[in-house]
Queue: 3 jobs
Job 1
Amino acid sequence: MLPWAIVALWVAALAIAGPLAGKLADVQQNRAVDYLPTSADSTQVAKVQDALPGGESTDLVLVYHRDSGLTAADRALADRQTAEVASGHTLAAPPRAVPSKDGTTLMYPVSTTEPGQDDEARTAFVDDVRETVRGGDGLAAEVGGPGALTVDAQKVYGSLGGPLLYTTVAVVAVLLILIYRSPLLWLVPLVVAGVADALSMGVVHGLNRGFDVTVTGQSSAVMTILVFGAGTDYALLLVSRYREELTRAERPHEAMAAALRGCGPAVLASSGTVAAGLLCLLAADLSSSRGMGPIAAVGVLCALLAMLTLLPAVLVLLGRRVFWPLVPVYGSEPRRRRSLFAAMGGSAGRRPVAVLVTGGALLGALSLGVLNLPGDLKQEDSFTTEPDSVVAMATLADAYPGRSSRPVTVTTPTERAAETLAKARATEGVAAERGRSGGGWTELSVTTSAAPESAGEKATVLALRERLPGSHVGGPTAQQMDLETAGSRDLKVVVPLVLLSVLLVLIALLRSLVAPLLLVAAVVAVWGASLGIGGLLFEPLLGLKGTDPGLPLLSFVFLVALGVDYGIFLMHRVREEARRGAEPTEAALTALRTTGGVIASAGLVLAATFVVLTNMPLAALVEMGFVIAVGVLLDTFLVRTYLVTSASVALQRRIWWPGALSRTPGASAPRAPELVKAP
């Protein structure tokens, strides 16, 4: 009756969470300013703009371009179309043509508060303008500007859910079929992971409504990847142990109880370590990173809950036949196969110091690739396929090299508006005009002579912030600068917290200081090597023109948390072997031989799920997916297999210092059941 009761509880939970899960996309915040700290100068500008009459403005640039030079007919067409835009919408001012010096381009800056803060209304406005602004016969007509970039980004994030889910499911399904070699078994953990994903989305929607947790398209995508990746890992461990126990127990529920006793503690410890590491992101200043922490932790914990309750219940109800055609028979001996990991462990065991030094040198050399990482990612380079807004910005950059097409926005107390305007105009390379006023604040629109997000424009933003105390300076370039500043600060604050929290969990679990330090050092080395490989391949192979400011921090948190996850499975088994009386070398090689297969399978699945992100149309997701997938593979097949095993052999009992195992042979503890076996 218990399995049926568990299934019934999950059905009830899904009935509650399902409708909320469907609304998660509605609460996503994907504007650049939504990623920023609430205290950032550009965030304050956005808040003031929201409170001004009409709310947030939508700023566009209508671009007409002909390589051979605009004709009189081109100019007449542009005037007619921009007049049609003005007649159909309430604009801040009539569109005025700004011709390029070479005569190839016309741009018409357009600003309106018509959509206000309504994302759907803003999208409808931009789409309507794009329907009106059309070229042809060699004349290119594009709609760019901050408003168009925002709408294009929101469309991309809004389109991620379906393709991301379907691709992830397909990848995990293929790998599970290859691992289990069963026409039915692979489907069970996949369906359970889908249930966990729906539950996690419902919980995150509740966190957003109840605690105002920032939900972005990036955090939602990563949560789905974690649910399927980590959830499948836990399923591999449980199913592997359950299959073994079915040869010892006559009834499936007895075998499952034994399997949960055997691998449950390690799964709980590993998932707890991952969640603890992710929750350290709550100390981040960036709203997107701070929201990513609890959202990703919810994904991991929902996956854990599903795999330790719903999966066992379904497997027990299906009985032994779920393993067909390789059905484990009660009383039979598990089939022994030649282990690749036994051979790999043997090579590490014969020359542990040489393997350790060589592997460490390789990781160090790869880490030098960090020096080749491309510069900070510009807003127009954040798409892997160029939408209309990015094409427009490229056209403007070529045609107007001495002028920014995206104004810097300054908000200042109204009583000081005249003084602030005069100081802004006195700043070198700046033209400024007064805009809306309301609620005690006045908006100034500042145009710089430097290209968008160039060093010159950044210097102008810094000069304005220095010259205009009491005012706030925002806009796309200022937002990017605030992202970079907050990302640098978060890296210094969150990284030590993650290392400390993970180290404390490992010390408590392994009852040692040396082994936890070894595992933490290993995952830090993997992080550096993975970023280094990214630096070598981002631009030449993937065509990425910049590095997302949040990549170093987020990749560190995920690689440390997930890497230590696998380290727990291996070192927990080494410790068990040592407690049974095995000599240090034997304990390390036995642990690798018995856990290597399932850890390799789990690593392949987790890496494959993150590889899915590299197929997404946003550079930030591509970079994160690439770095984490590479890191997981390095951790699985180099660090766990060779380096940690070699270090265990080289250090002998000293690896358990200052615990009891470092001083005396184990042998006092009864022989515990094996934690995991190769699937």
Job 2
Amino acid sequence: MKNPGPPASRPAPRTGSGTRPAGASASAGRVRAVGSRPPAVLLVPAVVAALLVLLPLGYLGVRALERGAGYAWEIVADRGTVELLGRSLGLAAAVVAASLVLGVSLAWLTVRTALPGARAWGVLATLPLAVPSYVAAFAWVSAAPALSGFAGAALALTLACFPYVYLPTAAALRGIDPAQEEAARSLGAGSLRTFLRVTLPQLRPAAAGGGLLVALYVLSDFGAVSIMRYDTFTRAIHASYRASFDRTPAAVLSCVLVVMTVLLVTAENRTRGRAGHARTGRGASRPAPRLPLGRLRAPALAWCAAVAAAAVAFPVATLGYWLAVGNSATWDLERLLSASWSTLAVAAAGAAITTALALPVGVIAARYRGRTARLLEESAYAGHAVPGITVALALVFFSVRYVYPLYQQLPLLLAAYTVLFLPLAVGAVRSAVLQAPPVLEDVARSLGRSPLQVLREVTVPLAAPGVATGAALTFVVIMKELPATLLLRPTGMDTLAARLWDETTVAAYAAAAPYAVMLILIASVPAYLLGRHRP
């Protein structure tokens, strides 16, 4: 329960960042002074994590320039590279635009209107997150092979990505104070003008942030575009790596892809602006009244049903059909169980290692200020802008050149998972530590506990629910990761994602269906727990 605001006769004490409710702990959310250094027990593993994340970027740069800047520029300026750039950006733009339409419209209908069964439709709008994009692509192309190409890739990616827009937009709609909209209507503005002039500007940051996630997802996607036979940077990088002993072109293309993602993030940050729409009055905001749909009730229900059918029902039905068509001659139960066990094992190991490395970074980010803490946190988040195929390619180059015994061994695959998904775990750890009162850590130190004892006996137990949430989320996304797994998995090891890709590349849809179903079933368990138990 939130602390109430301070009574009028008793002003709230002030801190450097604003006001604090009178009943709040003086140490809540506190960070240590600028210039204070984290203890070695946190600093050393945090530096290791940062160096691991930055390694692929640094090595890609060295590898791309190995034959000189002129050769690298010839690859960048090549007509094929320019065409790949246009195809990748065109696909990203189409998917972002469609995802904005789906996400914003469904958020408005389920949060702000008297839509029958709004809660159920809201749940259905989030379920596509449990379906990997390459599973959605497999379902559509197996049912309608003519969809392969741009149209099929855009369709599959849109249906898999629009929840990234829906979720933040719905949350923003719930937080908007309805008094502003009511004031606009009292001044003569109609419903449409009120939405465009008052509501939409407040939704823009949330929708833009969701759109950025969609764009990054599309640029880094490998499975859906490969199954749909649509050439983008990720597919070209994989083909270049497999087809030639000269790996420099693949490294140069990977660098171009990284630059594209960084430019997208920078552009979104600059276009966001500094405008704010926060409430400044006292008291709790009341929920906005749900608007009656009237004659639009039937079209609204039809719209929600169509999206749910395309994004959830159709892939599930398609997988059911191919399961019914398949038999012991088309898929092997023993191989399915073996791939399932391998998937569980590598996902659990990857989540454990990633969470362990994220713990010191998250604690430093939550408890310390200064250049060191900022650099460590920003380095950890650098992996967020690096596609899986780029990380895998960099680690392949590095292992072949310097640590060949690790090539196609499990540690290298786990390192790739850590680079890719450390930001997810760091964010969860940081949020959990911020919610824990640091005064308890101060008390432990005053009683003679060492930094390691404070971390083990106080900080970690208090932040355990949030840390567990980050580990579960990391587990889910590792299960679905495809390009890094394809390039770095140990020889002879199958995972569900790899087996699904292998079968779909030869159009063996009945053989691929069991792997897709098992992947969704396993991923749905932690996904359900994440949705039910929020930190």
Job 3
Amino acid sequence: MTTSTILLLLLSVIIAAGLSFYQYLYKVKNQSKLYWFLAFLRFISLFSIFLLLINPIISRKITEIKKTPLPIVVDNSKSISELKATKEASELYLKISENKAIAEKYDVQLFSFDDEIESLDKLDFKGNQSNIDAVAKNVKQLYRNTNYPLVLFTDGNQTIGNDYVFGFQDNTTVYPVVLGDTTSVFDLKINQINANRYAFYKNKFPVEVFLQYNGTKNCTSTFAIMNGNQTVHRQSIVFSKDKKVQSITVLLNADKVGIAKYKAIISSSIKEKNSVNNIKHFAVEVIDQRSEIALVSSISHPDLGALKRSIEHNLQRKVTILKPNEIKSLQNYDILILYQPNAAFKSIFEQNKVAQLNTFIISGTATDFNFLNQVQTDLLFNMSAQKEDYLATFEQDFNMFSQANIGFENFPPLEHKFGTITEKGNVNTLLSARIRNVQLQNPLLAFSETNQKRTAYLLGENFWKWRLESHLVSKNFTDFDLFTDKIIQYLNSNASKKNLNVSYEPFYNSSESIEISAEFFNKNYEFDDKAQLTIQVVNSKTKAIKKYDLLKSNSNYKVNLDGLISGNYTFKIIEKNSNSSFSGAFEILNFDLEKQFVNPDQSRLEQLASNTNGAVYYPNQIDSLVDSLLKNENYLPIQKETILKSPLIDWKWVLLFLISVLGIEWFVRKYNGLL
């Protein structure tokens, strides 16, 4: 309190006393106790008013002891039960949390986790997933800017989440307590299968499989992939003490359109303690990519045969060479290749205004450029009668699809009419033109997309020479034919957009969250956030039906189907207002991720402890862990002093006191007839 405030308070006492004396005692002949009492009440009320007007700042000093937080986190997933460590997990954390010395030094806080972390209420070891990374993320938020130790009771086997070994902050020292028997037992395991979601009909698709062996002796195992009851791949795998992990790549045939379901199995003649992890399911959707391509030309040229052979290198493509007057309808074709169009192509362009087929236009010395300017809006041709040879320059910034430079700069020149070619629309150039060493602004191979219709332009003839040159350099046509196939793939992959798009998996594990998401678009293909989507799920065996509403999230609609039993299901999603629908099927496997482990992941827990300057402990070393926590001088309690300053006017009881004193004074005066 400042000196000026003290002087004002003293002055307030004098003024309040003087006024009270003057009002009740000055010139009063009989100074009875009643008048002295009333004078005292008036002094209290006046002084209180002056006190509130001066409003002095009151300071208080608060001393508190701040302990270092000690989060104790216990794994509550099924794997602890599978490893027969539930008793240890249930009892050992109490030995730390109920230790009086630990409680005096640390602020002990208890948590449990499976797929998420939460305050420890009860351990039942029924969690379907283990997410140690969630522990790292949550404690990071809880204990910001604080150095603290963390005791982690777990087997170290994580089934979801990022790598927890590098997930904890630098200010966290982790002491893992390894739960489960660390004795090594013989075990073969399929760790992971990587396969593309889609494959093309009559093509081969790769499947990458990661296999793991736990043991000390050499072991010969058999790995097989089955499609239904048919074995589509089988091979022997040899493991040893020094070769415990192997990855293999298998090429499978996509010989049937639709969803192909596969089962990968690894086995040996030695009996295993846990055989659940010997089987993994995966699925691939086989798409029929067959394309009917019309190659239309009014002239004969070597380019036509070269194009046909190059495109049909992919067995999913069929090219038919036609003259313009031979095409009566475009309904039987997926792509149009128009070679050196002229006025004879007018009917084809008219038909394509309705059919909206993607088009590959190739121009050259026989092209009618006045006609070409009339029937397309991407390029403006201003050509002379003079011919010119144009070399190619590869444009690195091209981003319509992935294409490597296969030596385009060294290819023979293409022949074309001389002139300028101006880009009018949104055109993306893969190859630009140059004359000898002079780079031009003209495109040589360009692509455009307007209103969902795609067009490719090759501005030059003698395309056959490029294919021949590629063969001379690489001794095969593969690189060049792949380049041609990418052009056709670009023109063929523009599928019409659907109002209702649904994302789901062919397989779900019974221990996983079963989520299906959907997007619904209006007629302008804008996301409709007012759609009413429902899903009907039918068990193929029991015919039991369940219906759910899809709930809107940020950019789609989602439904969670947790609670369904293992089996095959069909489903149908319907949008109520438009009656749009989508049907599909999935299978829930009786597969529990938490049953895949035969031992705790000791090595990763040791790595975690090393990264955080902690140490690994085992159930029989809990006393050593307690002793280490107590002796660690990095985590001593901190005494913290806090000075709280508050103005007197914030004290509500002062105002209540003033009102009470004035009320008592009025009542006494009233009672004694002094009013």
